[in-house]
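User: Teach me something about this protein's shape.
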Amino acid sequence: MIKDTFAAVESAMAVPRWRSLLFVPAHVARFVETAHERGADGVILDLEDSVPQDQKGEARRQLPECVAKVGRKGASVLVRVNRGLRALAADLDAAVMAGVDALVLPKADSAEWVLEIANTVSELERERNLAPGRIRFLAQIETPGALQRLAAIASAHPRMVAMALGPEDFSAAVGGSPEFDLLLSPNLSVLFAARAAGLLPLGFIGSIGEFSDTHKLRKTAAHARCLGFAGALAIHPTQVAIINEAFSPSAQELEWARRVVAAEKDAAGRGRGAFALDGKMVDAPVVQRAREIIAMGTKAELGV
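Assistant: First, the predicted structure itself:
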């Protein structure tokens, strides 16, 4: 019965449209107060790296007020929890509440760990009369060991909705720096595993900390979308507009996509499965890409 209920809730929930997710330290009031004005599709209230150890308790106590504030304009509300068991238990007790759309799980390294958290969240939902399964998971891949278990992590539980490589932590874990050559392969591995499991792949090939070089970020984010990523995480408000633009179809792309769909309809009426457009052959995969671009544009217009 519980599994059936969970499946029904899950099937009714659409995959979110997260072009940009902005990290906000949950203990810094002035950042929380203005987070809803930054234009991000989602706000991640951070209880982990950006919160000093001696302020984590206060950050948890302030969480209900923070959740209400950052979600004022309809952005998704996420909470990043800690990895250690004692801190994680306290974080889950504080974060499983109405208004929270997802938890960000740092240093996710096994399906078993994801499942343990999912079971705890389900228990808290039942105790608090919350809709079962509503709170989703975004897993951050930040260790080389996790790369060997990406498929299992991605399919660990129906709550899983997105995956992202943590470039800074991953680079530190392998003794390197967050440069393109080091990050390309693990990012692509996360991308492939996420797509295979029907999850959102988030990220770009570079350091998330380089927020001042907007020209570099614009090129890096545009490249990430060409690779197949659906969005990216941001640690500074200046990154949000750039990331939103990079992961949204341009007017030229939308015009091309609409012509492809119109031409496909005409070709189908003439019994053709493939056809030429602008000197290029168009078949089913190209039509699928065109339809996805149109869907992305529609979601952007609707703000979903």
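Now, about its shape. The first strand starts at residue 20 and ends at 25. The chain is about 50% helix and 15% strand. If you'd like, I can walk through any region in more detail.
User: That's plenty for now, thanks!
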